[in-house]
Specification:
Blueprint: H1 6-30, E1 35-38, E2 47-52, E3 56-62, E4 68-74, H2 84-115, H3 129-152, E5 173-176, H4 178-198, H5 202-208
Antiparallel strand pairs: 1-2, 1-5, 2-3, 3-4
Helix pairs in contact: 1-2, 1-4, 2-3, 3-4
Length: about 210
Amino acid sequence: MVLFNKSANHQIRGFALATIAWIMCSTSMGLPEWRVWYLEEPIVSSPSMAFIGMWRACICHHIDNSSHQQACHHYTYRDALVPLDIRLAQHLLLVANIIGLVGTVCAVFALQQLYTERVQKNDDYNPFVLSAVLNAVASTFIFLAVMCNYFSVPSKEGVCFLPSFQMPLFPYAQRAGRAMGVASVSAILFLLSAIIFISYCPSMEKDSLPLV
């Protein structure tokens, strides 16, 4: 016999949130728009805007009034141009991505246990605890990475670009890019998933719903 319950459906929603959160975390890592630089009074064929990402920086050159050209430089661990806050955010996002993936996989095994009734005999056993903890840790790491980038925006911290970019050390104006928003939503979804997983209670389920 299979135990059908509404609580299990909530765990499926938690798994869906964790999956979306992991995809968004991975996407944010590849986006260059963590910081958007604006340069003062750009001229033709000179850089007018720059996107500073976790793994690459992209420079936009105005060709004419209607078009522009973008050149990107991918970071390596040997690049001296990468500031400390970006290096820290790189590692935080990378670890969060791995932990989030492991937490999502753990949720798959927990759902398998739940729907095949291979849970522990102890009614208080929650098979989603490990996934909840991992997702909460991933959410925290992503949030810290976002904060590292967020506090660097108003201070207008500079980046030592390659000489070929012809970019100044500091921007005229700087704002947060869309990648920071994507990462923030990912952190929120990971946290919601963790809350859903940790709130699962098998004993209440068995008391309130019949076996079919």
